[in-house]
Every structure is written in C-alpha cells, then in structure tokens.
Amino acid sequence: MTEYSGRIWLIVDEQGKLIDDIDTDMIYHNKYLAITDRAQMGQYTFDNLEGYRDFASKAQKDDIVVVGANFGSGSSRQQAVDCFRTLGVTSIFALSYGAIYKRNAINSGFPILEIEEIDMEALATGSVATDGSAATGGVATDGSAATGDEVTVITEESVVKKGEKVVIKFKQMSKVQKDIHNAGNIFEYAKGL
Amino acid sequence: MGLTIIEKIMQAHSDEPAEPAMPGKIIWIGIDVRSARDFGGANVVKNFREHYPSQKVHDSSKTYFTFDCNVPANTIAYANNQHICRGFAKEQGVKLYDVDAGIGSHVMIEEGLLAPGETGVGTDSHLNILGAVGAFGQGMGDQDIAFVFKAGKTWFEVPHTVRIDVDGDLPDTCTPKDLTLKTVGTLGTKTCLGKAQEFFGPAIDKLNLAGRITLASMATEMGSIIALLKPSEDVLRYCSELRGAPVQPTEPDADAAYSGNATIDINGLKPQISLPGTPHGVTDVDTLADIHVDSVFIGSCTNGTYEDLKAVAGIVKGRRIKPGLFGSVVPATRKGYTRLLKEGHIETFIDAGFLVSNPGCGGCASGQIGMTGEGQVQISTSNRNFAGKQGAGDTYLASPETAAASAILGHIGTAEEVL
Prior knowledge:
By secondary structure, chain A is α/β, with parallel strands linked by helices. Chain A is built from 7 helices and 7 strands; from the N terminus they run βααβαβαβαβββαα.
C-alpha cells in the first residue's frame, strides 16, 4: 500500500494539542483483557479516554488516527493494537510510541508511523466537536459533524496530504518494520529468514 | 569504545556474538526464559496454535506460565483463559506457576529462573523488574511471545543507554520508593523513552534486592526499556545460592558510551507521592497533608516484597487503621507471604484492621483486591495511577511506609507522624 486515503482523527485535549502519554488502559481498558477474539476488541477502543469514549462507534473503515508522544505506554496488551485493526483503522501517526506498543504493532504488521512535522492549523480547520468535550480537528466526537478531513498518505514520499497541502511529514519505517509489514507479521517474516 | 550493560547482554545473546551490539542495530538475541501470564497467556496459546499447529515449543524447559493477574479467576472469561493455558502447558510439558504462586517476575527471581546477564520475556510490561538482578527482562504482546515460544529468540533494536547518577544518600525518613518516585518525577516519560537506563551512586550500591526491585519496576513508567543495576555482592550471593553455582555479573565498561546523562539529587529528600493521573506528577508528601483517604492498597510488583511488608508491620503494629477506611495488603509471592505469616506480621496486619489477600498483582489488573468507586481517594504502593486504571476514584502512589501511615491517620501523611 503505497498510497491510501481516509478520514483523519486528531486525538487532542481541550487546547487542541495532541494528547501525550495515552496509556494502554485508556486505549483498551484492563476490564476487557480476557478477550481473545479480535472481532470483539474494536468496540472498546478509547472507551477510557476522556473526550473519545465513543470513538469506536464513530470510527469508520479506513480512518487514520493521529496522537501525541509516548502513545501506548503502559501494559504489554496486544489488544491495544488489535482493537484499531478491528475497526478498520489503517494506520496511526504519533510523535512517539511506548516501547512495547511499538514492538506489538510492528510484529503484527500494523502500520504505526512517527511524525516528524505536523501542521495542526491546517488540519484543525473545519470541524470542531460540538459537545465541547474536545476540539477534534478531524472527526467530531459527537458524530454530528463527522466530516473528518479526508487525507491521503503517500508512503513513498513519507507525507500525508490534505488536498495538495502537506499536513504531516513522517519518518520512514525502519528496515525491520518494513520487512515485517511487507511479510504480514512476524510469523510470516520469520519463515523467510 | 566500551559497552553498556544492555549492549553486553545483547551481544552475548546475539546470533552474531562477534559483532558489537551498537545502539540502533537490529540483532537477533536468544531468550533464556520465555513466559506468559494469565493475562495475555490465552492469546499467546491462540497465536501459537494458529501459526504452529501441532508443533512443540522451542524448549519446554525454558518456557513458563505464571498466573498472577486474576488469582484465582473471578470471572468466567479469566477462568477459561487460565484453563486454556493449563491445557497447553500440559501438552507441551511446560512448567506452570498457578494462581497460588504470586507475581511472575518476582517468582522468576525467587526461583532463580533468571540470573544476572540473562534474558527473559513475558506478557508483563513490568518484566523489566529483572533489571534488579542485572538481567534483561522485557514485556511483550501475545504475538511476540508466541513467536519466541517457537523460535527461542527474537529481534531487538539495541537501545541507547542513559546514565543516571543518584547524588547523595537516602535519608533515614525515605525509602527506595521515594527515591524511585523522585526519579520518575524528575525524568518524566520522555528523557528515557525507548532507552535503557543504568543507575549509579552510593545510594544505589546500598539498595537491597527489594529496593532494587522497586526502582527497576518503574522503568516502564519512565518510558524506559529497562533500568539495569549492577548487582551488589548481596544480590550475587542470593542468585548464586539459588543456582547452586556462582553467577557472574555483567558490568558496564569504564568507557561505555551513554546517549545521555541525568542526575537525581536526593540530598535532603522528603517522602514522595505521585498525584492522581500520571506516575510522574510527583510532589513531597508533606504538601498534601490534609487530604482525606478512603482506601489504601499495599502490594504489587513494585512494593509487595517481604521487606516492604515487614516495614509496614513495623508501623501498624499495635495500631488500628482509621475506622471507615478500607486497607488491603497483598504479598507479591507465596514465599513472601509464608515468611510474613511465620514471623507474625500477617497477624499484625489483621489486628490493625487490614484485609490480607492471597499473593498476586493485587489492585492493578481487573481488581483481584477491588477497584475504587467514584470520588474514592486511594493510596496505592503500585506503579500506575492513570485515570480509570484502578477504578473510578483518585489514586496516589507512595511508599509502603507512607501508605501504612496514611491508613492509620485517615489522611495523607508520613510514617514520622505515626511513630
């Protein structure tokens, strides 16, 4: 997948700043840990993250999620990666990731990317949450103004564009991440070694 | 150019041991201990069966299950998952520490499964506690672990190492948890994100194993891969006795290259406490003195050792916790529990009004020992206080001594106020 499009979610606080340190209990709470069926995981995504508790019901296939630094810190739970897959989220862009989360995403072949530069202003125009709980740039949390900006990720150029404008520049995947992603997951990747 | 502890351990376990394990390099390293818990364990089994149907694990003598999250299971889902793991362990000939054993990372140290310089992985984000004995431990998700069960090795990007010098001696009124919280508060989550830490200083040299476990346990809350401590003579003796043979420490070279340095000043340190919301929101306990406390949880992989709980007994002996306050004590392991029982400390807890639970993770994962309700103020000796983590209430993180004193006082306070 060298080029793909989708609605963009900016996971931000009341000041419109990307939220840092979102931990795995906010992404996928420990009360759902006994779930092993991936199809059941999506519905609980972000249900312990203030302002985004209804994320799972508003998310659509092909959505793209943008978050702050140290995303996925905390627990080793794979569900915190897999839940986004269930919802059809295609990729996550963060300023940085928690170490275990990063491995879990890489080894399961889920594309997580690191933001180098982001134009929050260009992204935040247009849609703001109407319930006041959080000013999201892309999709409003109450769903009423679910007019999430459509963006296009161009992998080869390491950019995300809104129209013709570059809104995110991201770092290239490392070689191992790219190889595992291309193989599908660590199990498939290791067969080729 | 010399190597840091993590670089040496990784190089020694590498597929290409002649190649220096420089930071940023991707290498395959052999894993000495592969484990899964009741949390994540069933997912590991599911992944293993899906990708390696009817196959055997790489080495059953190096593979373990350790149940500690929901012990015994209080939901059918957890009971099912534990039973899936038991079935898999039996068919694979893998040793399983069941619901009575205690916290897996502590069991691994107590049983001598890991010694300094060795490597271990498991479905526990605090498995880097093994840094307390100078071993490399790492928490991983269920696909990662399923792969290691089969391959016996996995890839790692050699992390950079941050050198942390602790300046000063720990004052008598402070504990290893206060040193730990001071460090977490000073470094936050970004300084060491994705990096290894090495700690130096006279206060570090003097830490006993329990104190080392406390410090190493909160590397995760600093975003660090692991906090590695050069084993003391006591730690080496302890590990050697368990192994029945002398174990060798992995020490950093004098000219090891660190990617960053930090200093933690503990001169004149006062007891520390982390405010609800994030572990790194740390302040002095005496700034919060009039805050009412509803419940106190003493235990967890951070502060559930025999030594931690013995210190609590010293504070609460002959006293009663505040009427209306719910206090719980959860020893980390069965061994620790047994020792506390034989020495009369369990009776002390009960006489003081605490609920004493069987060993395990305690309050951290899905409430072995209860959650907090809305508006409830809890002091916990564990390592995470994110919103909603331990329930709907507000959780402060503190030392066992501060938690015990607060239980007696009914408000946030230090041991000095009680003794």
